[in-house]
Specification:
Layout (H helix, E strand, L loop, with lengths): L7 E13 L2 E16 L1 E11 L2 E3 L2 E10 L3 E3 L1 E10 L3 E15 L3 E14 L3 E14 L3 E27 L3 E15 L20 E13 L2 E13 L4 E13 L4 E7 L1
Parallel strand pairs: 1-2, 2-3, 2-4, 3-5, 4-6, 5-7, 6-8, 7-8, 8-9, 9-10, 10-11, 11-12, 12-13, 13-14, 14-15, 15-16
Amino acid sequence: MENKVKDLKIYGSGSSSGGEYNKIRIMGEGRINGDIECKDLKINGEGTVDGNLKAVNTVSIMGEGMLDGNVDCTDFKVNGEGGVDGNLKAEGNVTVRGESDVKGNLNAQKVKVQGELEVKGELFSDEVKVTGNISSGGDCNAEIFTVEGGLTINGLLNADIVKINLYWPCKVHEIGGSEIIVKKSGKLSFLGLKLIVTPGGQNELTADIIEGDNVYLENTTAKVVRGTDVTIGSGCKIELVEYTNSFKQDEKSEIIDNKKI
């Protein structure tokens, strides 16, 4: 973007029209009406963009920000509360420290969450790392997907490596991957997040189908588990296990049927 493009700064309370800018700073309470193209956008306080946003570099929300359209940027950062009322595409990283919700799809190279992320559509990323809670209305696709906390995925969780440490009740329709590890864990008191306990006194993963090459499960309820090497640890209730090489079962888990295929 050429240097002659001016900066936009809103201090205190104010509004401006959309257009093409260099750097945009909202310090206080500000609204921009219309589509925006800029080098980067920083909100420190309360800011609203009523239109689509395209940033060459970074979109940063420190406080509370609402972006009422599609967002296309290199990096997207939230430290507080940030919402996107459309699709979010980041060529680099999406980093959330606090709460963020995306009404459409999320596409990024890496997603890192310390807090809570809600995606109404589908999620695409090379790596997803969550300490807290993540939810998706559609499928989640990644190379590496790790969660310490909770998750709710209404579609397919598809990743080469899936690692879930259960601190809250987790629910997913289907999991597919090369290495799938689900373990029970203790409290997340260091996060300052409230621990939710299931009626049975322990947090668990509920899924219809879990399918991978190497599968290790604890505190999991599932209809079907398929894999090359399958290990069912403690606290599991599985209707059917299908395996091609090896199968191990903890005596404290309940499995209705198992078959070597």
